[in-house]
Amino acid sequence: MSKTIDKLQFIQKLRDNLTIMVGGFMTVGTPELLIDWVVESNVKNLTIICNDAGYPEHGVGKLIQNNQVKTLIASHIGLNPVAGVKMSQGDLEVILVPQGTLAEQIRAFGAGLGGILTPTGVNTVVEKEKQIITVNNTPYLLETSLGADLALILAHQSDRLGNLTYDKTARNFNPVMATAATTVVAVVTTMVDFIDPEIIVTPHIFIDDIVIKAGD
Amino acid sequence: MDAKTIIAKRVAQELKHHNLVNLGIGLPTLVANYIDPNITVYLQSENGLIGLGPTPHVSEVDKHLTNAGGQPVTLLPHGMYFDSVTSFGIIRGGHVDITVLGALEVDQEGSLASWIIPQKLVPGMGGAMDLVVGAKKVIVATTHTNKMQTKIKQKCSLPLTAYQEVNLIVTEMAVFEIKNKKLYLIERHPDVSIETIKANTEADFIIEEVRLMEDIS
Lengths: 216, 217
Prior knowledge:
The complex is a heterodimer. Chain A is an alpha/beta fold. Chain A has 6 helices and 12 strands. In chain A, α3 links the parallel β2 and β3 (about 70-75). Chain A is globular. Chain B has a single domain (about 5-210), classed as Glutaconate Coenzyme A-transferase, CATH 3.40.1080.10. In chain B, about 15% of the residues lie in helices and about 30% in strands. In chain B, strands 4-3-2-1-5-8-12-13-14-15 form a 10-stranded mixed beta sheet. In chain B, strands 7-6-11 form a 3-stranded mixed beta sheet, with no helix packed on it. A two-stranded antiparallel ribbon of chain B has the order 9-10. Chain B is globular, with a radius of gyration of 17 Å. In chain B, about 50% of the residues are buried. Classes of the chains: A alpha/beta, B alpha/beta.
């Protein structure tokens, strides 16, 4: 059984109104090749979940630039002025989430939890319209779990089944996003016969499809 | 000596042997240049590493190895990488000894505003809210004023990053400590009088024993 797919097979998975998680931190660890294919497909009304808005010409910024994104859920958009302009014009809904909360919301979904309790954001605008639950006299925000239809991730090595390792700080959100989407597509730099089971970061059971791209 | 260098040098004195420290983007990053060479400090970067080393030579830049500001960095011996869940577990879980970050405003109760100017500048909070809530000690490293306006307020007017979490404020003029929701002036720059500090500070502060800032030039 091969999980390797090509561009055409990938584009067939896309449609309007999808919720897509994209790995990467300021585009380090973002699968640019898959973003380019989403741009090419020109599907619209996407909800994108990503740490940040990337740059206008890199990462999920390319989807924003191409007017494919309806809603962006991210912790930071400061490096993408296009996102800022579209937001203030009302063309892009931006939901800003503290970075640690975003990571835990995604983890919770992948782990079958309804949400998490975090002290982050208490007594700030982040708590607006959220339930506050007090445990041992400490107030926590209830942050509900966050999943997606599709997760696009970047890894380093893969074996035939899709056991994955990552490369340095390109790891970031990729392993957790691999757990939280109906379909997970991984771009990998190299396909190898064997990976030491002790160093596998993402078990193959999370990975649906693999695209091999050296140098990404 | 410019203001940023004074601030970075003074903040560096707060770092102790074997501390785990997160330095924010911008001015706080400069603190790394002034850490006492006789101590070992572990620098964390929230994008997923501990053991942040110096900026690499241009020929050794690795596009998969950056700090949380996206700048190329290196990894020191014994350093390691981890994912965002682990990274924020470290941060929120109280395992970071000191976090140093900048401010748009900071107030006398220790509340901090650093991530949004509504309708004007909306970068987002990134990891700052988690860092400020989770770190054992929160140091705000900031110039005392911005365009002649004080940044040290009675009460923050901008949306908060966190409520009453700041422990120390270091500026080019002074060092303030926040204890029991009260602001204490604990140090002043040798060339800056208490009167000048008062004139440049909106916050009310308590003056008990004021030392001079040392080794900042």
